[in-house]
Specification:
This protein is mostly beta strands and about 270 residues long. Helices cover about 5% and strands about 45% of the residues. It has a ten-stranded antiparallel beta barrel with strand order 4-5-8-9-12-13-11-10-7-6. A hairpin with a 2-residue loop joins strand 8 and strand 9.
């Protein structure tokens, strides 16, 4: 049985609501890692990372954390966010994210279209799993959010040249996946309320076996103005063999993740409601 990996996925029947699928044991789990849940969590991490580039109100320009703490002062158009062992449910976060503003940005605030924010994460997550997860930049820039156009609502472009997540237990690596954009994602809306993600392509690369899936946001909406992540809409895509992968958002911090004929409701470690 191919545990711990992105598997070859067979076609599932899709409705206009949540995914209907055959009930079966999770083929993507081991004693230590539920790969189905971890992949869903990495997709959700894109939403939380975009929100992190806004402050506790979620207004993109300045700054958020485990909920609204941990950000240092703006120095040279950069802010270091120190997680400081903050908690979200059973998850404890330690380490940092470095946020740097570019273009004509002044004092860590965008001024004009073309301005951007770079995010470089380097932190660990413990709790909710047997091992420790590490999230870090596996690239040159990490994540970039660029103000494209507009004032109300503002339109942004999200690009990632590689964010990697690994989970190890007692020195053995059980999960190693990198997400990056194959086509920039579009984010419409500066504030959380009604913010929408559409289009573009997120690539999910399993560094253990080389399997690749691609997935795109479909009207992913911050329907809950107090949530750090989208809570409505879906992510839909395919894997290398043409089979399907899907994440349906059900509320703040939860979604239904489907790989092949297996589906489960999962919690997102980086999504929370204030």
């Amino acid at each position: 049985m191919r545990r711990n990996y992105l598997i070859a996925i067979t076609l599932v029947a899709l409705g206009f609501g949540l995914v209907r699928c055959k009930i079966e044991a999770n083929p993507n789990t081991s004693n230590y890692v539920d790969t189905t849940a971890e992949i869903g969590g990495q997709i959700a991490d894109v939403m939380a990372s975009i929100d992190e580039m806004g402050k506790s109100t979620g207004t993109i320009q300045t700054l958020a954390t485990c909920y609204g703490n941990g950000f240092g002062a703006c120095v040279g158009n950069s802010v270091t966010r120190n997680f400081g062992s903050c908690m979200n449910g059973t998850y404890t976060f330690a380490g940092t994210s470095l946020l740097t503003w570019g273009g004509t940005s002044v004092a860590c605030a965008m001024q004009n279209p073309g301005d951007f924010i770079l995010r470089k994460p380097n932190y660990t997550i413990t709790g909710g799993r047997f091992g420790s997860a590490s999230v870090f930049k596996n690239s040159t820039n990490g994540e970039t959010l660029t103000w494209l156009s507009g004032a109300a609502p503002k339109v942004f472009s999200y690009n990632s040249d590689g964010i990697r997540k690994t989970i190890g237990v007692s020195g053995t690596l059980y999960y190693d996946v990198t997400t990056s954009t194959a086509g920039n994602l579009t984010v419409t809306g500066q504030a959380r309320a009604g913010r929408v993600m559409n289009g573009g392509t997120l690539e999910i690369l399993n560094n253990i076996n080389g399997a690749i899936c691609t997935i795109s946001p479909q009207n992913v909406t911050w329907a809950d103005a107090n949530c750090t992540c989208g809570s409505a809409g879906s992510w839909q895509g395919t894997c290398g063999d043409g089979s399907l992968i899907r994440l349906d958002l059900t509320d703040c911090g939860h979604g239904q993740m489907t790989l092949g004929t297996y589906s489960e409701i999962i919690s997102f470690d980086r999504c929370q409601n204030n």
